[in-house]
Amino acid sequence: MKPYFYLSVFVVITFFTSCNKVENNIFVSNVNELTEALKSVKAGDDIVLKNGTYKDINIKFIGEGTEGNPITLSAETPGEVFIEGESSLEISGNYLKVDGLFFRNGHSPKTNVIAFRTSKKEVANHSTVSNCVILDFNNLQRDQDNLWVQFYGKHNELSNCYLAGKTNGGPTVRVDLKGNQSIRNYHKIINNHFGPRPRKGGARGETIQLGSSFTSMSPSNTTIANNLFEECNGEVEIISSKTNFNIIKNNVFYKSEGSVVTRHGNYVTVDGNYFIGDGVNDQFGGIRIINTGHWVINNLFYKIKGKNFRSPIAIMNGIPKSPLNRYNQVTDVVVAYNTFVDSDSPFQFGVGTNIAQAAVLPKSEIRSARPLRTEVVNNVIYNSVGDKNPIIEHDKADGVTFKSNVIDNNKVEFPQKDGLVAMKLSLTDIGSNLSFPLSGFSDVEPYIGFDFEKITEDLLGNSRSKNNQIGAILASENINLNILDKSKYGTDWYSNEVEKKDPVTHNVTNADELVSKLKAAESGDIINLNDGAYAISKSLIINKSITIQSNNKSEILYSGDENTPALQLQPYGKLVLKNIKLKGTNTQYAFASLKENMSNHFGLEVIDSEISNFNYALKVFKQSFSEEITFTNTAILNCENGLELSEETNDRGDYNTEFLTIDNCTFNNVKQNVIDYYRGGYDESTIGGNLLVTNSTFTNCGASEKNRILINHRGIVNVNINNNVFKNNKVKLVALLWGAKNNSHSNNTVTNSGIIKTEENLKQKLMY
């Protein structure tokens, strides 16, 4: 067991008769000096960590500063003090500040990396963590859930920080309200840059979570403001609000696959935020509304193509008499003064209705309670390409007041609805590559509802007192936004902008060169095999982005031990294998992840290749995840097992890859697990994975398959099996599709291979 150093600050408060600020810098360069320094600090002291690496330390920062004389723990040079290994930071007391630390190359041995408490009773108040970075500081196993920043106490702040790369379960940041010391907390999460969070492959991947189901009746009064959320793709919820009276204001959600969700709790204000997509990706979402009393006002939705749960505005059905951890009915909600530009079906009502699944779900799970006393008014829609369904009613929207909304649908007809008027509008460039309709609807009389006089400003902070036109931005000249300038968010010393470099091609002529040059290559490089055969007896390690290719299908002949992979896919390992013949001796794996400690994702793309004579063509172990696995123009021959991604059997909605694509491939004499891709548990908010099998041929496969199904994809939400040939496969079913989800098949030729069957309501184990 590694030794840990528990560092405590015990501060005796000195009472001053004057209000003069006390400053005392105490420089430390190692753990022992830090320990000694912390024993005698007082209000106004600044403990300065000299530049360097501090490894395997668990810091307990306990102290009593004052508003005028806080106690500070800071880096000598921000960004030059590295916290690594198994390390964490806990804070309790009053008026404490942490500044300039860089958490990297490790993980926390605790349930959090930074916590605003040191015990259940000892919490922090009026304390700040700022100008810090947490990067890829992941637990070794994906199922080892933890938090990177965990709030307790009151009036605490996370500001001007950069957090990115969380791959294991658990929100990046969570506000906890357990105990009166943490209720009505008025925390602030402001001016941060939440960088890319990769897809997790299941639930429990939020970027920010405010409370939990079982504290959802408590007031939190947390503010999330002026942050940049960039490619926050962990799961369907980017921000999950589960408490009352929170404010989500003036944030930018840029190319993030998910939504702001009022999951539990009531009276959340979502005001003046930017949701920016690319007009293509249908995973980029907006705001999903559940529960009571929310105000969604002054927001801009730009090229958001999300569907259903991820639609620009998704107003859900609830469960009658819902328990705290499910879906309460939407009531008394205001959605007003928002603008939508080139965003598909911006208003969707009754999202999540599942009455059709009543046969396989308990009554307590049926979402049949439609929104009541909800006002959707004074909104503007502009579509440069017309939308045939700008409004979708998954269930009747008879409890919604729909007034004073306008649309320019580029002359495309749509179902008429009272309260949505077609008009001709034009766009104005407002900066940050955004264009926006600012005028053309001044004659539309805004709907005035109860308390609407409190909507005093537009998205840009302009007063509505004299001009209260509909839409998010009042008509104005010379608007020039710079909301995508990353220097406005996060630290002043770290940037996630990486200069692109051209890949280096390493030509190899023998097996020894293959091993040595693969090891020496940098991420993004290409290993080019000259014509011939390459005999290897130990796994090739893939721990960076690398391409291995040849011109004339050079062979890699693997003779390693049984149950070892020819190519071992480690954390950060992203492999493109192109135009290669890969052959084993029937007992090994062609490709496999690590059995444990997959602390980060891998990736695999196989093109124009041939895989033969392996026990498994692909073996993905539990707690391993790849965002994309693709086989194109490839033959998989004479293998005991094909592509197995079925070890996530915890039935919590987890799965091993987001996208599994098989295109124009040949499977011949693969005896079992031809394609085995599993997601377990009835988690309706997990809307993946994705399986595409197209233009491929399966012959003499599945002879040893115990369940007699050729392609297994139980629980996968999006499945498309089309234009394939299935011939002489000794199975009962080619596939069992889940009719209630997005499972489909078309134009397949099936000969002596059973049938493709659809089961409308596939029974799933409930997660809740």
UniProtKB/TrEMBL annotation:
GO terms for molecular function: lyase activity. Keywords: Lyase. The keyword Ribosomal protein does not apply. InterPro entries: PbH1, Pectin_lyas_fold, Pectin_lyase_fold/virulence, PL-6. SMART domains: PbH1. PROSITE patterns: PROKAR_LIPOPROTEIN. It comes from the Bacteria. This is Alginate lyase. It comes from Polaribacter reichenbachii. The lineage of its organism: Bacteria, Pseudomonadati, Bacteroidota, Flavobacteriia, Flavobacteriales.
